[in-house]
């Protein structure tokens, strides 16, 4: 067993692509977790009681009709009492009609209940995930967060829609049938019920096997999807490195595995209903074989036998649904465990209780002996100190991994310092309300995020209550107006797919407009490095100047022009500030900065 596992692992390691499958697909039942799930139904008592009331129809039909049919045969037909026959037939018909109406109401109510619960759960989860801090997202790919909010919540839908409500009525139905049968004839009842345990086994164990085999099929399918997605996106690399044949072999192997799993799943599914039928028939045979004995002994009537056969038929639906519930619960345990794991994760960065709001700031920033570890042993800053006056522009420069982004992450309080302090206008940023802190800090990232919508909407993201005129004024201020007007519908041009149809330079100009509209006192800017045509480059320099004017700005600078104009340059190396000053002074010193400019920034001049 261990060897087989090792071999499988070996194979996977040698495989050119490795796809991690979904987490476990089902888990043993846990009462505490189930109770926690049930709590999501609590806000909808009317729907729950309504649905229960509506299921009464189904219970009545399952319990009463076989008896009525038996009486019809024994009394009305055998006694040739046509009046009674008509009355009983009408009663049966009425029962079926009532049941039909009740079933419709029940389906409506249970669906509404299920949808409401799912809606609430998903909203809770999304709002909670939004509140989580950067360290949470550092550890998880966006895809896996998406899967939990969508798939894992969806996996609970059946349970909330049908599972819980139906299972209670099913238990009542089963209990009712047993009681009625026993009270009609104990021996016949016991013989009829011989097959019931088999029905339970079928509907739980065999169903679990079938469901798992289909899950395996789905996992294989999603592996193929993941591979295809990668293969298509990376087609240029594949062709450049002439890897087509190898990829083809890998793809064929994945496909073959899929087909094999699919065969197994269909094979298992195909035996399910025949086995159910056989079990049912065995039950019926037993019933009639023993029933005929009793009939000849005059102990039972034909009608009673027929009634029992009908009761036997009515066993299957509730047992089958309880089996489904059993399956739903196993799946729900796995999904809800993952959902609750997220819901139980507390944001690491929060405002202290009763933290005062940060009043409108002037923009003085002090880093005082700031040490920061991303994880124990992963020190990114080793005691960084500096002071920035309101309105100053600070350029952060250094090699990749030197700690520049870490400084800005700490300033916006996306992480908390490991030791030391960060002060804004003399206040430690951990002591003030987080929202009032962030709302006074503007952030422009390298990769500007463009949301689907119009250019106007995208700029307005900086300040949702801005008027169209204010948006346009902002765009003009950062010299973005010119290119926007040249677009097909100007400010009302729709941008899709993260703005892929805009050039890098245009996206930067948009992000400047967004930031200047928000008008923060402190601005953080991670300058994009993409090479841009000289005209746009010129516009960007003008736009940047306008954006930086009058606010404390921290720029992770990549353009020499930006660095030159900074009031203060902080030069980072391995998480420490190794030099500081203005461009002129630092160049004359001929130190690390001088070397950096000559090697790294010369071409950007
Ligand atoms: N989320 C993170 N988790 C763990 N370590 C990180 C994380 N982000 C950065 N680091 C590490 O911290 C150190 C400083 O990284 P930082 O991103 O601040 O560098 P940088 O100077 O901004 O580099 P670049 O110019 O490439 O963005 C690096 O060693 C980096 O590997």
From TrEMBL:
<keyword id="KW-1133">Transmembrane helix</keyword>
<dbReference type="Pfam" id="PF00005">
    <property type="entry name" value="ABC_tran"/>
</dbReference>
<feature type="transmembrane region" description="Helical">
    <location>
        <begin position="271"/>
        <end position="292"/>
    </location>
</feature>
<dbReference type="InterPro" id="IPR011527">
    <property type="entry name" value="ABC1_TM_dom"/>
</dbReference>
<dbReference type="InterPro" id="IPR003439">
    <property type="entry name" value="ABC_transporter-like_ATP-bd"/>
</dbReference>
<dbReference type="InterPro" id="IPR003593">
    <property type="entry name" value="AAA+_ATPase"/>
</dbReference>
<feature type="transmembrane region" description="Helical">
    <location>
        <begin position="188"/>
        <end position="210"/>
    </location>
</feature>
<feature type="domain" description="ABC transporter">
    <location>
        <begin position="365"/>
        <end position="599"/>
    </location>
</feature>
<dbReference type="GO" id="GO:0016887">
    <property type="term" value="F:ATP hydrolysis activity"/>
</dbReference>
<feature type="transmembrane region" description="Helical">
    <location>
        <begin position="47"/>
        <end position="70"/>
    </location>
</feature>
<dbReference type="GO" id="GO:0015421">
    <property type="term" value="F:ABC-type oligopeptide transporter activity"/>
</dbReference>
<dbReference type="InterPro" id="IPR036640">
    <property type="entry name" value="ABC1_TM_sf"/>
</dbReference>
<keyword id="KW-0067">ATP-binding</keyword>
<keyword id="KW-0472">Membrane</keyword>
<dbReference type="InterPro" id="IPR027417">
    <property type="entry name" value="P-loop_NTPase"/>
</dbReference>
<dbReference type="InterPro" id="IPR039421">
    <property type="entry name" value="Type_1_exporter"/>
</dbReference>
<keyword id="KW-0547">Nucleotide-binding</keyword>
<protein>
    <submittedName>
        <fullName>ABC transporter ATP-binding protein YknV</fullName>
    </submittedName>
</protein>
<dbReference type="GO" id="GO:0005886">
    <property type="term" value="C:plasma membrane"/>
</dbReference>
<dbReference type="Pfam" id="PF00664">
    <property type="entry name" value="ABC_membrane"/>
</dbReference>
<feature type="domain" description="ABC transmembrane type-1">
    <location>
        <begin position="49"/>
        <end position="329"/>
    </location>
</feature>
<keyword id="KW-0812">Transmembrane</keyword>
<feature type="transmembrane region" description="Helical">
    <location>
        <begin position="82"/>
        <end position="102"/>
    </location>
</feature>
<dbReference type="GO" id="GO:0005524">
    <property type="term" value="F:ATP binding"/>
</dbReference>
<feature type="transmembrane region" description="Helical">
    <location>
        <begin position="159"/>
        <end position="182"/>
    </location>
</feature>
<keyword id="KW-0813">Transport</keyword>
């Amino acid at each position: 067993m261990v060897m087989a596992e090792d071999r499988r692992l070996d194979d996977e390691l040698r495989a050119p692509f490795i796809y991690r499958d979904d987490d476990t697909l089902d888990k043993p039942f846990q009462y505490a977790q189930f109770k926690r799930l049930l709590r999501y139904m609590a806000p909808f008592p009317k729907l729950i009681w309504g649905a229960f009331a509506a299921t009464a129809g189904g219970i009545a039909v399952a319990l009463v009709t076989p008896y009525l049919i038996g009486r019809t045969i024994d009394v009305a037909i055998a006694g040739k009492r046509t009046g009674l026959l008509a009355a009983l037939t009408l009663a049966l018909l009425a029962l079926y009609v009532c049941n039909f109406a009740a079933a419709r109401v029940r389906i409506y109510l249970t669906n509404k209940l299920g949808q409401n619960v799912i809606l609430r759960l998903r909203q809770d989860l999304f709002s909670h995930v939004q509140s989580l801090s950067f360290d949470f997202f550092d550890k998880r790919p966006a895809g896996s967060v998406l899967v939990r909010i969508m798939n894992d919540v969806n996996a609970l839908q059946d349970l909330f829609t049908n599972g819980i409500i139906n299972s209670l009525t099913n238990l009542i139905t089963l209990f009712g049938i047993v009681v009625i049968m026993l009270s009609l004839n104990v021996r016949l009842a016991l013989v009829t019920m011989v097959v019931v345990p088999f029905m339970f086994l079928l509907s739980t164990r065999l169903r679990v096997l079938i469901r798992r085999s289909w899950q395996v099929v789905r996992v294989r399918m999603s592996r193929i999807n993941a591979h295809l997605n990668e293969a298509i996106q990376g087609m240029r690399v594949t062709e450049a490195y002439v890897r087509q044949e190898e990829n083809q072999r890998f793809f064929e192997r994945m496909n073959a595995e899929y087909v094999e799993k699919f065969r197994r799943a269909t094979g298992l599914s195909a035996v399910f209903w025949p086995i159910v039928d056989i079990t049912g028939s065995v039950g019926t045979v037993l019933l009639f074989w023993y029933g005929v004995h009793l009939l000849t002994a005059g102990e039972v009537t034909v009608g009673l036998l027929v009634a029992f056969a009908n009761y036997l038929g009515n066993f299957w639906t509730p047992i089958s649904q309880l089996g489904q519930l059993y399956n739903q619960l196993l799946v729900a345990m796995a999904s809800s465990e993952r959902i609750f794991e997220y819901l139980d994760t507390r944001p690491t960065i929060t405002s202290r209780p009763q933290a005062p709001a940060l009043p409108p700031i002037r923009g003085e920033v002090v880093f005082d002996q700031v040490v920061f570890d991303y994880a124990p042993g992963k020190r990114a800053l080793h005691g960084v100190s500096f002071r920035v006056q309101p309105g100053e522009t600070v350029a952060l420069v250094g090699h990749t991994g030197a700690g520049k982004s870490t400084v800005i992450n700490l300033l916006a309080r996306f992480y908390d310092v490991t030791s030391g302090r960060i002060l804004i206008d003399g206040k430690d940023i951990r002591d003030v309300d987080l929202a009032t802190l962030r709302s006074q800090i503007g952030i422009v990232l390298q990769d500007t995020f463009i949301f689907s919508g119009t250019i106007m909407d995208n700029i307005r993201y900086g300040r949702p209550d801005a008027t169209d005129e204010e948006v346009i004024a902002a765009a003009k201020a950062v010299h973005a107006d010119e290119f926007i007007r040249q677009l097909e519908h100007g400010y009302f041009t729709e941008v899709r797919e993260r703005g892929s149809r805009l050039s890098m330079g245009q996206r930067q100009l948009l992000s400047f407009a967004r930031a200047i509209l928000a008008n923060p006192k402190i601005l953080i800017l991670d300058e994009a490095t993409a090479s841009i045509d000289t005209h746009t480059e010129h516009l960007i320099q003008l736009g940047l100047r306008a954006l930086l004017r009058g606010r404390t700005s921290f720029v992770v600078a990549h353009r020499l022009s930006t660095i030159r104009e900074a009031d203060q340059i902080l030069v980072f190396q391995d998480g420490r500030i190794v030099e500081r000053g203005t461009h002129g002074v630092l160049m004359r010193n001929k130190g690390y900065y001088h070397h950096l400019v000559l090697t790294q920034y010369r071409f950007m001049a």
